[in-house]
What does this fold into?
Amino acid sequence: MVKKLGTRDVYGEVLVRLGQQNPNIVVLDADLSCSTRTCKFAEAFPERFFNMGIAEQDMISTAAGLAAAGKIAFVSTFAVFATGRAWDQIRQSLCYSQQNVKIVASHSGITVGEDSATHQANEDISLMRNLPNMSIIVPADGIETEKALEYLVKYDNRPVYLRLSRYKFPVIFDSQYVFRKGKAIVLEEGTEATVIAIGLMVSRALEAQQMLKEQGISVRVINMSTIKPIDREAIISAAQETGAVVTAEEHSIIGGLGSAVAEVLSEQCPVPLKRIGIKDCFGISGDADELLNYYGLNAQSIVQSVKEIIDKKKKV
Amino acid sequence: MSLPENKILELKEIARQLRVEVLKMLTLAGSGHTGGSLSIIEILVTLYFFKLRYDPKNPTWPDRDRFVLSKGHGAPALYAILARLGYFNEAELKKLRKINEMLQGHPYNISTPGIEISTGSLGQGLSAANGMALAAKLDKAKWRVYVLMGDGETQEGQIWEAAMTAAHYHLDNLCGIIDANKLQIDGSVCEIMNVEPMKEKWEAFGWQVLEADGHNLHSLSTAFDQCEKIKGKPCMIIAHTVKGKGVSFMEGKVGYHGVAPTEEELEKALLELR
Ligand SMILES: Cc1ncc(C[n+]2csc(CCOP(=O)(O)OP(=O)(O)O)c2C)c(N)n1
Ligand SMILES: [Mg+2]
It folds into this structure.
């Protein structure tokens, strides 16, 4: 059995530890603290936890004010509300004002499942990616979530969007893993194509890589956990060395990882590209695993896309 | 300890000079918000020359009182006062809104000393001020937070989210001010989207509400003093003002919301402000 960890569960625990180490940390939530796991921090440090009620816009700007007065503010709610409901507040109070606020959103992507399209954020990365001064991090597992959180408190004082999930991810990294913002990780070397993935899709990409290996096809697998600022060099060398790229994300193919990679490739090293993700549509209710298969967010569709892209590369 | 008579005379003269400065800046810039800058002069003068604790030589002094101009389009008035206090060189005022200069069209904390947080998109400043007040409480610090909003601005839903927050967290170190000049862009506030009864609304949200004549330094200073004494809840001062105050042909005129004076208008205005 593969070990699985919920990225939000890790967040809840790490936040308490960070709160013990750093008295400057404050946490805000909008009536979803049990779901986002900030309730653990609330329990440990009630005076440093602010439940803002169901008022995401107020929550973001209040966090900005706390940060302006020297606090490190963590803000949590579901991804769809964190980014969509309060975009203008994030733009002006956080990004333009350059405040040390860390938006840590749970319930991203289609794996929100049964709650349906209203709650499935497939557009959040897109909404955050166009904002100057904003960083975006999508951890591939619980370990990377922990390391990214530690890194962000220690080294980063600008706005950041950390994208977490309700769905539990297989654990990929060991406790020695070192996270660096803006640095992609090559998880598997390969020669015929590269799969660049984020979040849950990293584990699926590794599965696909094994399946392809058994069929005699060699692919590189990259974990692009920092979508912004994106690791251009990793993308360009992958394109130069393998000649074809597949991106995989639990997010719309518009504005997310696929778009970010396409932007780099088309300007610097055009090679055949295929984007796996939600194809510009709203989601539906269902079990998370069933939905992942329904939308082609699985190892099989990565395998198929890699084969297609290698064919295309040969024809060019 | 409200303002003594001789001090009031001195501050009235400063207010007059600031109006002149604001009109000159706006004319040079060729664009900007005239009416809403002129309506907040006395509010700013009372705050900066009577109430706030700050140090222009050390704009990020941790114990300073915080002022947030939530109605960011009133920036010219704030810039004029900050320059006068020495936060930056008065020569900057002549370069308002020009390319690659310090003074942006709306307050920008990264470029301009004395600005606590960027504003311009209305409705966010009260929340940010709440955050600052919460931080002060956590740190058991004595500094206070002041935030100035427009009356039209209070149509924004976020203002009422923040109104609840301030009362819920008993932010008695926070003072809100509404520049009740009765106008917004498209017309009078009561015709566009009525915000009255303001006093009752804020009271219902758990605030102590004071009213003041927003162009009377005595009335304003008394209100600010009173506000400081309130315990356990936030305080809102509804400052009744006249948009375009000080220039007869601009007073109460919707048309002077977002336009700068022409050279001729400036000349006429300066005659009135002698
Ligand atoms: C969120 C947002 N919507 C619209 C505007 C455009 N705008 C600038 S000033 C203004 C009217 C403001 O009226 P009021 O708050 O009464 O300000 P004042 O009368 O003091 O100028 C509007 C609609 C804005 N700056 N922000
Ligand atoms: Mg008004």
Q: What stands out?
A: Residues B 35-36, 39, 71, 73, 120-123, 150-153, 179, 181, 183-185, 243, 257 surround thiamine diphosphate (ligand 1) (CB under 6 Å). Chain A touches chain B through 32 residues (CB under 8 Å). Residues 244 and 284 of chain A are 32 Å apart (CA to CA).
